[in-house]
């Protein structure tokens, strides 16, 4: 007989997640739910990011509805005060402080233009394990980031990015063309990474890429290109696309990208709940770095692409909720996404005790 | 965040003697797989005292396949340890989910642990975890005699010279003030032991101008200036007096006699059970950490969940007739 065990979490907790763009964390209290945990973030007076459980120790009033006094948060309900480590430093109407009074403090560090948060066991939080997204604040690259709320499980977005054949169908007017769906690809994997590589040689560039190439090289009119997609997953949920096009036959597959345009499209998908996530994305380019108009135009073109994805992903989430026992089938194009899921599953296994062995009755 | 307690039927897998007065109980909760526990954590255990069900909290000292808790035999206790010591292998009881009200924070440059007697139980796991993580730590471990140093071998193996033993029975009493004075600024002190020691530590820490949040403490709400003995509680308002037995809390005695006092933590931390003291013939033995030292000295209120008296204490149990309906 099948047991009705509670559904397993789809995300590991012992991992660094992007909690916010650096610019979002300020001297104002900012609430955000991350991995099903209500969190309030702010910055200390000397600029360090702080992430605390967003529920007062006393009666769970959200601390984000209170205010900052120096580096401490004052609960807006009864005035309990918590320091940046989450320890209570003031209680009303008493001379002492209950020794067990604290709210949970989450390890939070700033790197690559993001504030990263570790929702799991704090003793295991090693900032050296943050996913490599250095293109996001490398001054050799330009482009502005966005966070888009998405009402779907975070893995649906990882799946989406790990398999770009959907471009042909979902994004047919911007980045998709038949070549993407038909070109051969290769999937490789390591301990915490998975990569999908695809080259499309001597093809007509889709409109998004024609625009980027035109912006850099000043070309108008039709030219054929060699197009590449290196899709890099790193646990728990970073997907960095090394994508671009170069004039056909100018040596891009051999490593000479000088006659082309290259973007690093950096994505991080942070679970909000099991059925929603924060989709952080930015397109970084290594040409025309000071062209503010190009930055805006690129961001807006991609926002339109994300909106197309969103329509599919939200419908997919609803379909999954309508069929809670359904299990996906896979195509060969899903190997990259499957590796991403397997790596995540291993991390979840590591932090979940196995069900107890019970003697047969 | 405090969460609802869930209770699980549990079997005693093994009982071992750690010291002449401390026994370790390996508990296997049915249907749960036990792997790890929150540092500083405890289990609440359902016990029977004088034929009545009650609960007691015991620190967890291990959690690998089963929970291991440590119980000190206290002859004049409120009966919990006596019950636990009556249990052998195969005995059944219920336990709560593990939780910690004495958690260990990360991110400090150094950790300074002080344990006295049974106070080693929450500190033990912390010391091992900190040592395993390569943290900068030291432990001062106080007991009366060497054979009362539970877990001494394991601690010595993990900590080496970073652990010092202080045996009062051999005239080597722990100098808490000197220990604290050697703590560099910004490092953390975790202390668990009898209330007089914790009071002394808090006083010294404050006098040194150190932040209160860097000295964390836990008492088991079970130690005071005097050994427990029966005492009388007078309720002049009702023209009555009750006796609190040596193995009974004043809170339980008042409630059992029908004088209802509300309480929450039952470990002298929250202050909800405070009543007004009207007079004392003898001495009030304040065992809580809710009142400040000067409030305890004023002697106007007491936390009846843990505090006791020697002699007779006269209180206002804060019970009033409802106003008449008009």
Descriptors:
A: 361 residues, alpha+beta, seven-stranded antiparallel beta sheet, 6 helices, 18 strands, globular, disordered C terminus, B: 326 residues, alpha/beta, Elongation Factor Tu (Ef-tu), domain 3, Rossmann fold, Ubiquitin-like (UB roll), 3 domains, five-stranded parallel beta sheet, 17 strands
Shape of chain B: globular
Low-confidence sequence ranges of chain B: none
- Number of distinct beta strands of chain A: 18
Structural class of chain B: alpha/beta
Give, in order, the helices and strands of chain B.
Answer: EEEEEHEEEHEHEHEHEEEHEHEE
CATH homologous superfamily assignment of the largest domain in chain B: Nucleotide-binding domain of ferredoxin-NADP reductase (FNR) module
| SS field, number of helical segments of chain B | 7
User: Tally of extended strands of chain B?
Assistant: 17
Describe the 3D structure.
The complex is a heterodimer of chains A (361) and B (326). Helices cover 21% and strands 30% of the residues of chain A. In chain A, a hairpin with a 5-residue loop joins strand 7 (81-82) and strand 8. Chain A has six helices and 18 strands. In chain A, the strands form four sheets. Chain A has a seven-stranded antiparallel beta sheet with strand order 12-18-17-16-15-14-13. In chain A, strands 2-3-4-9 form a four-stranded antiparallel beta sheet, with no helix packed on it. Chain A is globular. The two termini of chain A are 15 Å apart. Residues 356-361 of chain A have low confidence and may be disordered. Chain B has 326 residues and is of the alpha/beta class. Chain B has three domains: 7-96, Elongation Factor Tu (Ef-tu), domain 3 (Beta Barrel); 111-219, Nucleotide-binding domain of ferredoxin-NADP reductase (FNR) module (Rossmann fold, 3-Layer(aba) Sandwich), CATH 3.40.50; 231-316, Ubiquitin-like (UB roll) (Roll), CATH 3.10.20. In chain B, helix 5 (195-207) links the parallel strand 11 (188-192) and strand 12 (215-218). The N and C termini of chain B lie far apart (45 Å). The chains are: A alpha+beta (361), B alpha/beta (326). The interface between A and B is medium-sized, with 30 and 31 residues.
């Amino acid at each position: 007989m099948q047991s009705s065990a509670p559904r397993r979490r789809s995300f590991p907790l012992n991992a660094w997640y992007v909690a916010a763009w650096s610019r979002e964390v300020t001297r104002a209290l900012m609430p955000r739910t991350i991995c099903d945990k209500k969190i309030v973030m702010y910055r200390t007076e000397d600029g360090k990011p702080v992430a605390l459980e967003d529920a007062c120790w006393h009666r769970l009033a959200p601390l984000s509805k209170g205010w900052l006094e120096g580096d401490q948060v004052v609960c807006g309900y009864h005035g309990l005060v918590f320091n940046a480590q989450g320890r209570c430093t003031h209680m009303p109407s008493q001379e002492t402080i209950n020794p067990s009074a604290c709210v949970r403090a989450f390890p939070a560090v700033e790197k690559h233009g993001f504030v990263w948060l570790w929702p799991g066991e704090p003793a295991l939080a090693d900032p050296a394990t943050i996913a490599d997204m250095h293109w996001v604040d490398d001054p050799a690259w330009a482009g502005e980031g966005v966070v888009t709320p998405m009402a779907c499980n975070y893995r649906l977005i990882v799946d989406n990015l790990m398999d770009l054949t959907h471009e042909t169908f979902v994004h047919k007017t911007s980045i998709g063309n038949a070549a993407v769906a038909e070109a051969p690809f290769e999937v490789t994997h390591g301990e915490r990474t998975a990569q999908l590589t695809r080259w499309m040689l001597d093809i007509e560039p889709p409109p998004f890429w024609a625009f980027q190439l035109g912006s850099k090289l000043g070309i108008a009119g039709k030219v054929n290109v060699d197009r590449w997609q290196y899709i890099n997953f790193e646990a728990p949920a970073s997907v960095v696309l090394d994508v671009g096009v170069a004039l056909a036959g100018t040596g891009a597959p051999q490593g000479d990208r000088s006659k082309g345009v290259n973007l690093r499209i950096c994505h991080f998908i942070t679970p909000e709940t099991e059925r929603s996530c924060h989709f952080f994305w930015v397109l970084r380019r290594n040409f025309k770095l000071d062209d503010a108009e190009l930055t805006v135009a690129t961001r807006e073109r991609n926002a339109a692409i994300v909106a197309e994805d969103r329509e599919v992903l939200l419908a997919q989430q609803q379909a999954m909720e309508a069929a809670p026992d359904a299990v996906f089938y896979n195509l060969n194009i899903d190997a990259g996404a499957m590796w991403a899921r397997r790596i995540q599953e291993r991390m979840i296994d590591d932090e979940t005790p196995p069900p107890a062995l019970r003697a047969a009755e | 965040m405090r969460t609802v307690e869930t209770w699980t039927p549990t079997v005693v897998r093994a009982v071992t003697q750690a010291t002449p007065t401390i026994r370790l109980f390996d508990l296997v909760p049915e249907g749960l797989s036990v792997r790890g526990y929150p540092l500083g954590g405890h289990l609440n255990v359902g016990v029977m005292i004088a034929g009545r069900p009650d609960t007691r909290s015991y620190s967890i000292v291990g959690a690998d396949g089963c929970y291991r808790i440590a119980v000190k035999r206290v002859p004049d206790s409120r009966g919990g340890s006596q019950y636990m010591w009556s249990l052998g292998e195969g005995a059944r009881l219920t336990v709560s989910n593990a939780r910690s009200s004495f958690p260990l924070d990360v991110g400090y440059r150094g950790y300074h642990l002080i344990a006295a007697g049974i106070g080693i139980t929450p500190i033990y796991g912390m010391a091992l975890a900190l040592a395993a993580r390569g943290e900068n730590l030291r432990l001062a471990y106080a007991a009366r005699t060497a054979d009362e140093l539970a877990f001494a071998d394991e601690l010595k193996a993990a900590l080496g010279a970073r652990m010092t033993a202080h045996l009062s029975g051999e005239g080597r009493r722990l100098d808490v003030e000197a220990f604290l004075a050697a703590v560099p600024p910004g490092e953390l002190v975790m202390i668990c032991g009898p209330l007089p020691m914790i009071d002394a530590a808090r006083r010294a820490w404050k006098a040194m101008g150190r932040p209160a949040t860097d000295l964390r403490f836990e008492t088991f709400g079970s130690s005071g200036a005097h050994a427990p003995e029966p005492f009388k509680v007078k309720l002049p308002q009702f023209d009555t007096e009750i006796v609190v037995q040596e193995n009974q809390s004043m809170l339980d005695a008042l409630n059992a006699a029908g004088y209802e006092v509300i309480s929450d933590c039952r470990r002298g931390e929250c202050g909800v059970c405070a009543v007004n003291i009207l007079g004392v013939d003898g001495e009030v033995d304040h065992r809580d950490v809710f009142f400040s030292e000067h409030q305890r000295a004023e002697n106007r209120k007491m936390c009846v969940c843990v505090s006791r008296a020697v002699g007779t204490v006269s209180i206002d149990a804060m019970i009033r007739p409802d106003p008449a309906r008009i």
